[in-house]
Amino acid sequence: MPMFDVNGLPMTLEDHQAGAAWERTVSGFLAHSASTPEHLAETLRRAPEFALGWAAKGMFTLLLGRSELTPVAAEALDKGWAAIATAGATRREESYLRALAAYLAGRPSQAAVMLDAVLIWHPEDALAMKLVHAIRFVLGDRRGMLRSVRSVIEHYGPAHPHAGYAMGCMAFALEENGAYGEAERTGRAGLDLAPDDAWGLHAVAHVYDMTARNDTGIAWLSSQSGRWAHCNNFGTHVWWHLALFHLDRGDHDRVLELYDDKVRAEHTDDYRDISNGAAMLVRLEIEGVDVGDRWEELAALAAGRVEDGAVVFADLHYLLSLHGGGRDAEAERLIARLARDARRSDHDMHEVAAVAGLPEARGLAAFRAGNYDVAFDQLRRARPALQRIGGSHAQRDVFARLLIEAGIRAGRWREAEHELAARTRRRGAEDGFTSRRREAIARLRVAGLAAE
Question: Which of 76, 138, 169, 282 has the highest CB neighbour number within 10 Å of its CB?
Fold first, then answer.
């Protein structure tokens, strides 16, 4: 007799303990729980012929964005196909494996399309919903994120066991598409149903960041740290958001305290953790803060990722780290590798390298060299396609800040003001960074006139 999951979907499982471990795996993935790999390992130990479990392992592995883990995902795919040959699978389960195969072939965009097809048959499939959301996030496909979750959200009423997590994804997609009021309401309502949904909690924090509501953001996160205590390294990203609010207020001591105690308390080499650190240090240095020797550990880790090439977003943050740590030789090697990738077209990320990654990297290198005119032109050229490197508006904002800073340092104040205005329109409010840069430009103009 087939087993059914909590969403009412059939599973090719016979062991009820394996089924319970699988439910914990899915719930853990939705909640960004640190225990998710343990639950998945238990599932596959009890049911090694569970194809969907192998598909999930492969997907989870590829989402880590580390090229050396590709063989692990490939092995999971092979074991998934072997499981189907032995125990069979539902059409849904087989579709997950086909999506994994597309992702392994360098086409996560195709994997997302395949999983969206699963949602047409099974809109209540929360695992597929979250995987599509995660993949499109890596691809910077904000419209695709919203389109996908919006197409199924009506199936996640209060009785659905994963309704709160679906609402958290909806809130984040709404925020990334500028619907800030609806995003805030949806995120808050989702947390009533899934109190441990750190993604939904952080979606609301994004709203406060984009609308320059720093005091509200600080109060929102400071009072709810228990909601992400169960998290994997996503929890450090939520602390990063709290530091962003303090940064915009100019409370640099508090930012550095959070950086040391929460954001980089552990010197991990996960690209998301490195990007948190690098992006924060750049923001601080732009504000004139001496960050001491904090670049050194990031640069040492980034030096080992020069040839990775799994995610362009990661590459650019490795580059920031190498520049910050004075590792110019490794930085040049990374840019050369991006150039090689950009000449190829056999991988989604190679296409991203061509249109966004390489131009941005060259602009960052010019900024590092003090060639601010060149940096401004190159960074501005990269900006229209920069969405495609993935991540959120808040994460990519470090590149917008560098673009504006390059314009100011190059004496191209009118153009810098144009970029400041464009950034404010994209974000929805004028924040502390913008007001400080407007004041700096005004002072420079006065000084220039006085010198004349």
Answer: 169
